[in-house]
Amino acid sequence: MTTSTDHITELISRHYRGMIRTGRLEPGSRLPSTQELAERWQTHAPVVQVAMAALVKEGLLKRTPGVGTVVLDVPAGLSHVGVLLPQGLFEHVEGAYMRRLCHEIERQLCDTGKMSTFIIRDPLPRGDTDSESIHLPRELIEKADRRDIQAVVVPVSSAEEVPVLRKLPVPVSVVTGMDVPFRISFDDLTAVEQAMRALKEKGCRRVGIIDVHALAIEHQPGVCTQARLHHLHVRQCAESMGLEMREEWTINAVRGDELLDVSHERYGYESFMRIWRREGPKPDALFVNEDIVARGALMAILQLRVDVPRQLQLAVYQNKGLNMLCPLPATFIEWDVARIAGALLEQVERQFAGDIVSPLIIQPEVFDHMPDFA
Q1: To the nearest whole percent, how much of the chain has pLDDT over 90?
Q2: Which of 22, 78, 96, 149 has the fewest Cβ atoms within 10 Å of its own Cβ atom?
Q3: Can you tell me the distance from the alpha carbon of 246 to that of 100, in angstroms, rounded to the nearest whole number?
């Protein structure tokens, strides 16, 4: 809900934004002090500080302690975007999605005449950490301070990194589950429901799960709680639809599974082997998150000569554009990589233009996949 303080903050930001963009406040002009502005607008100094901080982030103002707030030479539009990436992104097959996403970001920027600068950050420390111990690359901070880059997009981050990112003096967008207005996130809850519904409609009664969140928990501090919530939602969704789930059919690190120090592909392979070779009843449906994990699971299914779809129905997450080879019929829950890239850029474009942004939630497309080769 919008408060009177929010309204005053927006009025102040809108007033000075218009003054700067129309040239009524020329580059180099010095604004009155925070206290003087507060008295002029009949409000409190913290309200003015929030309003000015928004304009600093848009690249309209520069605030220097002991000097004051000065109007900057405003470019006609957003022309240069920084992309912050984790170290080692291009070294492993697991980075295929991220590489594709980076390609889409660069392509979309190029198509609109904008420049991109890719900046590599160190991997986040494992184990317990907090935002105070997170340090952004010096190159990123310096380029943002000088406005060599006018915005930053972050395709992958941790919960601890988000508070640090929002301190940058330029617009930021980030893929995260954190509750921040500039985020891009995936509607995983809807995706799970659609996958379970598709399996239910095909007559399935017992569902197994192979979940990539197990590896995310090990390698990305701060996602454990999110992964547990995801796993809980999967279970609740299956139960609400009358689908049976047993612990022995569920491979996920939230149960303490030990398949963590392997590649995603091998994780999928060994996970399915564990489920199918176990004595006793077997699931008649399998939900696999995500496509690289599914590659390994598919190899195991073919090796064990499981009859799909008679013995087992499949529901698989996949990223559009990676062209996963799936020789078996399956329900695909597909995320559009180009759309994710577009959402990241849209968020910073809108912030740069002075718009108030809200989270953009990416919805999946669900459809039946049938192999079109013999």
Answers
A1: 49
A2: 22
A3: 35
Q: Do residues 267 and 296 touch, judged by C-beta distance below 8 A? A: yes
DSSP string, 217-251: HHHSTT-HHHHHHHHHHHHHHHHHTT-B--GGGEE
Angle between helices 337-352 and 96-111 (to 10 degrees): 50
Could you report the per-residue pLDDT of 143-192, keeping only the tens digit for each?
A: 998 889 999 999 988 778 888 898 888 889 999 888 889 999 999 889 89
Helix axes 291-303, 96-111, angle to 10 degrees: 140
d(CA 82, CA 168): 12
Most confident of 84-98, 144-158, 195-209, 311-325: 195-209
**DSSP per-residue codes, 169-205:** SS-EEEE-SS--TTEEEE-HHHHHHHHHHHHHHTT--
CA gap 203, 115 in Å, rounded: 51
145-148 own/partner pairs: CB under 8 Å, 24+ apart: 145/169, 147/59, 147/72, 148/80, 148/117
Question: d(Cα 284, Cα 276) in Å, to the nearest integer?
Answer: 11
The reply to whether the predicted model has a pTM over 0.70 is yes
Answer with the residue of higher pLDDT: 129 or 88.
88
CA 149 from centre of chain: 21
What is the spatial distance between Cα 26 and Cα 44, in angstroms, rounded to a whole number?
A: 26
List 152's β-bridge partners, or say none. Answer: 82, 172
DSSP assignment of 254-309:
GGT-STTSS-HHHHHHHHHHHHHHSSS---SEEEEE-HHHHHHHHHHHHHTT--TT
- Per-residue pLDDT reduced to its tens digit, 86-109: 887 666 666 788 889 999 999 999
- The token pair at 211 is 């979940």
Residue 255 pLDDT > 70, yes or no? no
* 266-293 pLDDT per residue, tens: 889 999 999 999 999 999 999 998 888 8
Report, in this order, helix, strand and coil percent for the chain, each rounded to 5: 45, 20, 40
Backbone phi, then psi, for 50, in 5-degree steps? -65, -45
d(CA 213, CA 223): 9
Q: Is the predicted pLDDT of residue 220 greater than 70, yes or no?
A: no
